[in-house]
Amino acid sequence: MAHAIPASAPLVLMVTTVNRSDEEKAARLFTEAGVTFNLVTYGLGTATRSILHYLGLGQTEKSVLLSTMPLEQSRVLLQELADRLLLNNAGRGMAFTLPVASVCGKETVNILTGSYQVESREPMELTFENRLLVAIANRGFADDVMAAARSVVQVGGTVLHGRGTGHGEAETFFGVMIHPEKELVLIVTPEEYSAEIMKAIASRAGTHTDAHAIVFSLPVVDAIGLPPLSEGQQSDNA
Amino acid sequence: MQRNLLEKLKESAQSVLPVCFIVLALHVLVAPLPSNTLLLFLIGAVLLLAGMTIFALGVEMAIMPMGDHIGSGLIQSRNIWFLVAASFILGAAVTAAEPDLHVLANQIPTVPTIVVVLIVAIGGGAFLVIALLRILLQIRLSWLLTLLYALVFVAAILAAPDYLAVAFDSGGVTTGPVTVPLILALGGGVAAVRGSRSAEADSFGLLGISSIGPIIAVLIMGLFFDSSVAEYGMEPLPTAGTLAEGFQLYAGELMRSAQEISVSLAPIVVIFGVYQVLRLHLPPSQIIRMVVGIVYTMFGLTLFLAGVNIGFLPAGTALGSTIGAFSNNWILIPIGFIIGFVVVAAEPAVLVLNKQVEEITSGAISRNMMMASLSVGVGLALVMALARILMGTSIWFFLLPGYAVALALTFFVPEMFTAIAFDSGGVAAGTMAAAFLLPFTIGVSEAVGGNLLTDAFGIIGLIAMMPLVTVQILGMLYTIRLRQVQLEMPEEVETVEPEIDIIEF
Asked: Which residue, among A225, A228, A227, has the nearest Cα to A93 in the 3D structure?
């Protein structure tokens, strides 16, 4: 091994959502910091008020970056993202980290760690103050999910597209598999609101509605770019 | 203010301003425009910018989602007869509603207009069906395109030479600024519900195949009807002495454009409405959004068309005739390249296509890459068209080798690039080509005393052809570069099984 990684240096998966025009800036920030595992995909930021949604002025095109790094480095990078890309300003994007539980193979650990040298060997206390809510709804209903969530507290969301598999055997047509299209809505919110938001999504856009949304949550290590808290109202920020 | 609106405005400015800048530079440096032409041009430029911005927003809100829903619905019905019938009706209806088709029909006076419209619409519908069936049956695009273009050229040999130009021009009829986003999204919708590896590539190619339909239809029609073509009649150019007259001209043109656009939007709205009521049942929130989007599309396109027809058309003609009259008119060749290079960016349908390509490939093929290859393609097309006018070469010397190269390339580049290339041909030969580049070459042709009919139409055919070559060359460079990058990567793939211990954190 080129450089041994202590098994105790915890890894995180960082998810960064930025405007497309900022994508290169963000990617450069990661590669300059020695992060070697970076994936980019496209998503959409959601409208924050229904009137803007109707007028087509709410949605913004976003790039979603997935990167892995040691927890220690992630805190430095989050700060840099906030400074350089102004993620704490409304509408610029957000970033959060999820804990990595385990990795298969030492070589893979090296790839996921990148060239960053971990300094502190002290185990870090993780508090998980925020939650990542993942809602999966039928295509076209991401805005209903967001409206339900916003009825509880102000949140921002990122929408990714996907195909649903499962449902037993996939249906085929001329030998071509057919998968229903789905939308994946990512919302990061403080832990104390997560249960209420999930209930709101389930009751207003749940499996008994056309949106057919299911929702679950994951623990978030750190997050930046979350909207300021103001309960139960909708404001102009994305 | 609104980030989204600002982004759209920025995009439109990037596509519209270069051509405005070049025209103004030519005005100052090479060929001064008459002051009234300049006035109309400046107003037109403002309308173009506003129109493009609103159009882009509307297409994203209404036309694309509609096409997307229809496309995935066709496949999800799992009923082959429904798919064939519905796509035929859709293809025929949007073709019949294209305003350009009626202009085309008037150029063939010996055949009643209604017959021309019907035959071309049937061609458009039938080839959309063929394009969809190709995806289902997984027929290789290269073979189908080679076969279809072989058919086109056989029919073309039998047709009268004058008629030929009209036939090739009709391919552009199915690629208006409303049809392009609809058909592109239709392909995207079909691909989105499919779980196969080629789904990405399959979301393109529908436009390319369905624009062959009208060409073949018109050529076949020529075999059965008396195929004499009307003289190319130039409409009197709009001129305005005062600002008030200029506004009056624009007011009239705005009304006319609004009417044209409503006609071409009507079949899409009706078909989607029926589909929504019978099958789709989207919630009201989404329908409201689409209605607003349709209004935006209509409003934006109306502004755009008025700006092009009143502002850009006379400027194009004036530039062409002034520069063409120079004694050393070889200078047209480099100027032509620059004009072609910047004009294609201002095509509304090009904006939509490039965005769709970037979206579907998750940025792997960026819109800048697409724009670069389209710009080079149209620039070269203009060089060929102008060289042809100056030297009087037959268009066959360009079309035959051009298509031969384009078709040969289909066997060497990834299918994705072939599909995008053949889609972009018709897209590049759109509104701006017809209302700015065509008048420019007509101006040149008049100044040097060429044959208006054959010279004028040559340009559209060449603009539709060159992107097939340049986009596929882009594909070739892309594959080569990708291979290099993979070779440069450290050789980590060894046959030794890697350690597979699990590291817990």
From this structure: A225
Taking each helix axis from N to C end, the angle separating B396-409 and B141-158, rounded to the nearest 10 degrees, works out to 160
Q: Is A178 helix (H, G, I), strand (E, B) or coil?
A: strand
Tens of pLDDT along B416-454? Answer: 999 999 999 889 988 898 889 988 988 898 888 777 766
Record: contact A102-B58, CB cut-off 8 A: no
Q: What is the pLDDT of residues B85-104, one digit of tens each?
A: 999 999 999 888 887 787 77
CB-based contact (8 Å) between B60 and chain A? Answer: yes
Q: Say yes or no: A166 contacts chain B, CB-CB below 8 A.
A: no
Cα separation of the two ends of chain B? 46
Would you place residue B144 in the very low, low, confident or very high pLDDT band (cuts 50, 70, 90)? very high
CA closest to A12 among chain B residues: B505
Asked if the Cβ–Cβ distance from B500 to A40 is below 8 Å, we say no
Flag whether residue A52 sits within 8 Å of chain B, measured between CB atoms.
yes
Determine, for residues A106 and B61 on separate chains, whether the beta-carbon distance falls below 8 Å. no
- From the list A40, A54, A107, the residue facing B288 with the nearest CB is A54
> Does residue A182 fall inside a structural domain?
yes
Residue A39 dihedral angles phi and psi, to the nearest 5°: -125, 145
Residue A20 sits at the vertex; the CA angle it makes with B368 and B2, to the nearest 5 degrees, is: 115
Domain ranges of chain B: 10-231+252-483
Q: Summarize the confidence of residues B385-399 as an average pLDDT.
A: 85
Residue B173 pLDDT class (50, 70, 90 cuts): low
Residue at A166 is within a domain: yes
Whether residue A185 sits in one domain with residue A106: no
Residue A123 belongs to some domain of the structure: no
Question: A235 lies in a domain?
Answer: no
Q: Chain B: nearest CA to A51, how far in angstroms? A: 10
User: What mean pLDDT comes out for the span A94-105?
Assistant: 90
Across the range B332-348, mean pLDDT stands at: 94
pLDDT of residue A234: 42
Q: Does A60 touch chain B (CB under 8 A)?
A: yes
Looking at per-residue pLDDT, the higher value among B497 and A151 belongs to A151
Chain B CB within 8 Å of residue A151 CB: no
**Which CATH number belongs to the domain containing residue A183 in this structure?**
3.30.70.120
Domain span holding position A180:
132-217
The full length of chain A comes to 238
Say if the Cβ atoms of A179 and B289 lie within 8 Å. no
CB B185 within 8 A of CB B268: no
Average pLDDT over residues A22-40: 90
Please give the tally of structural domains in chain A. 2
Instruction: Confirm whether the ipTM is greater than 0.95.
Output: no
Nearest-CA distance from B95 to chain A in Å? Answer: 28
Q: What is the DSSP string of B447-487?
A: HHT--HHHHHHHHHHHHHHHHHHHHHHHHHHHHHHHHHHHH
Q: Which one of A83, A113, A143 terminates a domain?
A: A113
Does A99 lie in the same domain as A175?
no
